[in-house]
Amino acid sequence: MLVTSRTLIKVIDQGAGESINAASIRKLLAFVSGAQRTTDSLVADLIQSRQRIPEERLRADQVLVLQVPNPEPLRPVQPDKPIARQMRADADYRRMWLQLYEQIVRSGRVMQCAAYPSLVNGRHVMPPLPNPRWDVPKLHMAQHLTLLAAGREKRLHAVPPFTRVEPLVFDDVPYLVEDRRDLTCHRSGARGFLMKETPQADGSSLHEIGLARCVPASGPPRRACLTSPAYCPIMFSAARYASRTVSSPRSRIPA
């Protein structure tokens, strides 16, 4: 069992632990299993989250459960479920590559902000997470177990510890995460992290690292660009791809 009376749980919803959904799930888990609750990612045994991954490096004995609204990664480009599952079984991800290429051609860059396609262990494209691109590198060679749960469709996927999780990128178009170097956490003064924004009555905004304990301002900033070939060996060349003749899939380009 994942949750028992001795389990210390933390629940995050949309980057915060104080939302109604997070409070309700936390209360339900505690009521059903008798588990204890915490707001500290470093001491929790099990962390359930939606749309964000904690900033701290999780331990090997911790379990991260991520809510996945859509367990089929090819569904955005192939709405027919049986065909999409067959394509995934055959590792046929050409339409996903084409979708990314079309975004570059139309907008000059990849417009996929959330649910960025990622390849697990060099073979399987994982179910799309509704997380920002900032979170994708956190799963790469992570020492903890990650479970991807799609409750509505009763499907469960797992990313074992120390598994390669690499975003699909072209070798001449580097993978970029959100640039937040100009934002400062109003609680700790830390910079270089993805933060949640809280609008104020005067029209200004306060920014806060909502998923981690506040770290000192001298803490190391997160890299804003992952361009190392050693990090992303799963690469295609956009220039070479342009010369291919591929039927255009039904793709949706974010605004």
Question: Could you give the count of β-strands?
Answer: 15
Give the topology string: H per helix, E per strand.
EHEEEHHEEEEEEEEEEEH
Give the strand content: 15-25%
User: Could you tell me the radius of gyration in angstroms?
Assistant: 19 Å
Which range best describes the helical content: under 10%, 10-25%, 25-40%, 40-55%, 55-70% or over 70%?
Answer: 10-25%
Write down the overall geometry: globular
- Helix run count: 4
Q: Mean pLDDT, rounded to whole units?
A: 78
Structural class, by secondary structure, is alpha/beta
Low-confidence stretches: 212-255
Spatial order of the strands in the main sheet? Answer: 2-1-3-4-7-8
Largest sheet: 6 strands, mixed
* Tally of separate domains: 2
Terminal-residue CA separation: 42 Å
